[in-house]
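Hi R.,

Quick one: here's the DDE-type integrase/transposase/recombinase sequence you asked about.
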Amino acid sequence: MNSNTYYSLIQFLTTLLLPVHLNKEQQAAIKQKSRYFVVIDEQLYKKNKSNPNRSLKVIKQDEIDDPQMFEDVRNYVKTCDKCQRHDKNRRVEPLHPIKIGQSFDRVGMDIVGPLPQTKDGNKYIVVATEYLTKWPEARAIPDAKATSIVSFFYEHIICRHGCPKETLTDRGTYFVNDMLNSLCDKFGVKHRLSTAYHPQTNGLVERFNRTLCETLAKFANENKNDWNLYVSTALFAYRTRKHNTTRHEPFYLMYGRKTILPIEFKVATSAMLNIGNDEQEDLLN
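And here's the predicted structure, written out as tokens:
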């Protein structure tokens, strides 16, 4: 990206005015390209600060010829206190492909906790991840009893996405019980269990568990007793972030379109410009 394009994007995103020195074709290109960028603190970039690799990768891919900006983003992420305390360098595990037909053919499910008890009495999170799109679902729950698991599986999976062909869990008593088996039998869901000697079989869910807990730790107060308030926020962030395996956002793979992020109501993008004023009012209300 040359400096002319760079500053044209900043001008358009901050003023909604296209540079007059550009011809109509160039103006259209700037308008189209703007959907992939936002201006924050007079810097042009997109991606959140919690993952420097993703932030820097986006800047590299779009060939922004500004070494200082690249270094600024790197230093900002490296010196973010919460990012350093909660983001951990992980060893990359080898991938073992699993054949999946379509979305929600297979759902992995797991329990996170016990966590610090919240003001609402929640101590656990029941988590499910869909294997094709990597779409996650989660709910804060007060206990790890079968009733809580069955309620989550019925309301968050079956009622929202339809009946999966199979669900994969570990051998904990909260999953191996008559209530969940009865629900699976009723709706034709095959309940598969990870082997006792290889519990990492459900690795997709376990990796999401780590990401979820790290995200909640950044949002929660010092007493860690309000983390349940941010489960939906953490889910939204994960669903709209490009996944390393699929190279797409789970939201895009699920719905076939890019999501409109909250920041795009404040920083105009082509996605928002294509929405009429009445539609924008409906979304805001």
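The chain has two domains: 3-87+265-284, 106-239.

Cheers,
M.
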